[in-house]
Amino acid sequence: MTVEPAARPVPAYPGRPLFVANDIYRHSSYGGAHPLAIPRVSATVDLARALGWLDGGCYWSTAPATRAEIARFHDPAYIAALERAERDQALPEDMAARHNLGRFGNPFFPEMFRRPATSAGAVLTAADVLLASDPAAHGGRVVVYSPPGGTHHARHDRANGFCYFNDPVLGMLRLLDGGMARLLYIDLDAHHCDGVEAAFHGDPRVLMISTHEERRWPFTGAGTERAGGSARNLPVPRGFNDSELDAIVDEVVVPLGRVFAPDAVVVQSGADALADDPLSRLELSNGALWRAVAAASALAPRVLVVGGGGYNPWSVARAWAGVWGTLNGRHPPSRLPEEAETVLRGLMWQRAAGRNPPAHWFTTLADAPRPGPVRDEVKLAIEAVLA
Ligand SMILES: [Zn+2]
Does the pLDDT of residue 83 top 80, yes or no? Predict the structure, then answer.
């Protein structure tokens, strides 16, 4: 099967990793006290640029996905409801309830249709670039990074967990429709990827591997849950450390990924499993996230890395700028240059921890490593998915 030509402009692969985003994230907020009332993508772009890692030739500003493209996964009635909600900033009660809008962390806000449509556009653009590129012509691998993407909770007909459209699902469907026979999906977010797992339940073309905090919302993703053979779930305990993620990558992600031999790998690099994040009790340093992204990216000739959760503006910007550096083989300086520090000093966070941030949130990219024992719970989770 071949896909329809993209409805958006799609760039040629620049011969090195491509960064796809948009300026809508610079001015859009979920509002009020919502965890997503912080800059994330714009701060990542500014920080990467200040480090000299993002010249014009490797940055692409995406157009939004079209309604028809979004309807490849989402219910047209839901898409229409979201457009109406953006226009009216309200919905009739029955419609709001049916689509889970204006409640449970999915607020009405001014760009509530355009923003997720742009994230979907970014991921679809990334998928189109990967489909149009020949990895053999680029040293064996083509890589696209789209930190606006990663909204892994959204469902076919409703918003869920701050996610309105499921851009990972849309991107993966695009890759499959475009001829990719096997897709590996690696999810490093603190929360289980319930929306992605539901979309590809029982699909033999897809293997989804997720690490996430046990007993945390959405309370899916038990070690025994395999989504009809398509998923391997590793719920991990509070205090999850760098050595434990390294063990999962070495013993599960890499060997299962090699056996699966995917045509493309999609990596969700949510930053909410980091110790500095307020929404989980996991305690990774960003270096562990970068190592996991690097290992996952080596598993296929086509690589799509998206963002995800992450609710401390400094730790998200530093983590995701570092993901981009990792994909480009760059090593962060031990002390950030002044221009990069200025970007970080310009961020605001309306939480107690944001009033007096520690100095290293401004002066470094890499966190101090957080190694530790690989605890029995993690060893058992590894054994369970390999059984
Ligand atoms: Zn999350």
Answer: yes
364: CA distance to ligand 1 center in Å?
Answer: 24
Calculate the average pLDDT of the chain.
Answer: 97
Task: Compute, in angstroms, the gap from residue 132 CA to the centroid of ligand 1.
Answer: 31
Rounded to the nearest 5°, which phi and psi values hold at 347?
-85, 150
Count of other CB atoms within 10 angstroms of residue 147: 30
Structurally, at CATH architecture level, domain 18-386 sits in 3-Layer(aba) Sandwich (3.40)
Q: Give the distance (Å) from ligand 1 centre to CA of residue 270.
A: 6
Non-local (6+) Cβ contacts of 31 within 8 A are: 37, 107, 109
Ligand 1 center to 309 CA (angstroms): 4
- Distance between Cα 15 and ligand 1 center (Å): 32
Is 96 within 8 Å of 103 (Cβ atoms)? yes
Those residues whose C-beta lies under 8 Å from the C-beta of residue 267, and which sit 6 or more positions away, are: 185, 186, 188, 293, 296, 297, 303, 304, 305, 306
* Cα of 220 from ligand 1 centre, angstroms: 13
Check: pTM over 0.85? Answer yes or no: yes
Report the alpha-carbon distance of residue 277 to residue 309 in Å, rounded: 9
d(CA 262, CA 185): 10
β partners of residue 103: 106
Query: Where in the chain are the domains?
Result: 18-386
At residue 352 the predicted structure's pLDDT band, cuts being 50, 70 and 90, is confident
CA 310 – ligand 1 centroid, Å: 7
Kindly give the distance from the C-alpha atom of residue 369 to the centroid of ligand 1, in angstroms, as a whole number. 21
